Amino acid sequence: GVGFLPLLVMRAHRLIEKHAAEAGVPNLTVRWIDLGGPAVMNDALLSGSVDFIAAGPPAFITLWDRTHDSVAVKGLAAMASLPMYLDTTAAHLRRLEDLTGQDKIAVTAVKVSIPAIAMQMYAVEHYGAEAATRFDRYTVTMTHPDGVIALLSGSGQIDAHFTSPPFHQREIADPRVHTVITTDDILGGRTTFTMLSTTTRFHDRQPKICQAVLAALAEANEMIRADPRAAAEILIAADSGAGFSADELVDVLKDPAIEFTTTPQNVTKYASFMHSIGSIERLPASWRDMFFPEIDSAPGS
């Protein structure tokens, strides 16, 4: 999806290799590996099978908390900020409170995904801390492409899907679909959707490569902003365009709700909530506690 587009641009234009060479690391070989789900990515990072992973705030914060006394995973930078949308074909579903025993919401991971945590935040705000898991029972695990198919086919597997662009735009184009709520609604502003992280060991041993990755990410984001059509073509070539044409994806990328930025946004709010319900043990004093110092000057949150 759109949240991972900066990585696709980095790969297509060999931006890491470019910036590594400029930093004095010539002939760097970069391998791009597709892994399904945050649990698999976390295991790969901790085992040393990969050097960087891209995930959403909840999965990242959990890993940051649990590795404090070992490999000390931290964020290198955010990649993109964008809302996720709870789309549904159920006419009765206008608020989360309207969920019934027959309703099922597709999320990428129950309990730990961005939508799962966002719905827990909503539950605590409206019903108190003891009701944090109030909406968990309505969720089922499904990839975004499978969620689109299941929702629009009317197969009965699900009647709602908490998804991201461009899958949201594919769903909302169907007149049967309406949006119930977004993660930006729940968190009260822009929220980081994806970020890059690595271990402190790798960061400290390979500072030039980390700088090259960060510079490549910043350049990729600038390329997306400057030429959304070229970025859309890359998304289509990677089979991540949800079946949209280039013109349709250009409109998605120009959506003002989507921002390609290395600045973390509302990550601390996620961490504070997860600490309040006991999901993590450590409470960061600020977002900078969770990230390497290369982006300390960013106006993050």
How would you describe this structure to a colleague?
The chain has 301 residues and is α/β, with parallel strands linked by helices. 42% of the residues lie in helices and 13% in strands. The chain has helices spanning 5-12, 15-22, 38-47, 57-66, 114-127, 144-153, 167-172, 183-187, 200-205, 207-226, 228-237, 246-253, 267-276, and strands spanning 53-55, 73-81, 85-88, 105-107, 139-141, 160-163, 178-182, 192-199. The strands form two sheets. Strands 5-4-6-3-7 form a five-stranded mixed sheet. Strands 1-8-2 form a three-stranded antiparallel sheet, sandwiched between helices. The longest helix is centred in the C-terminal third of the chain and has 20 residues, at 207-226. It is globular and about 60 Å long. The model has no long low-confidence stretch (mean pLDDT 95).
Q: What's the number of extended β-strand segments? A: 8
Strand order of the largest sheet: 5-4-6-3-7
Radius of gyration, CA atoms, in whole angstroms: 19 Å
Span from first to last CA? 24 Å
Poorly predicted regions are none
* H-E string: HHHEHEEEHEHEHEHEHHHHH
Q: What oligomeric arrangement do these chains adopt? A: single chain
Q: Estimate the global geometry from the Cα principal axes.
A: globular
- Helical residues, percent: 40-55%
- Please count the helical segments: 13
Described by strand count, sense and barrel closure, the largest sheet is: 5 strands, mixed
- By secondary-structure content and strand pairing, the structural class works out as alpha/beta
Mean pLDDT: 95
Residues in β-strands, percent: 5-15%
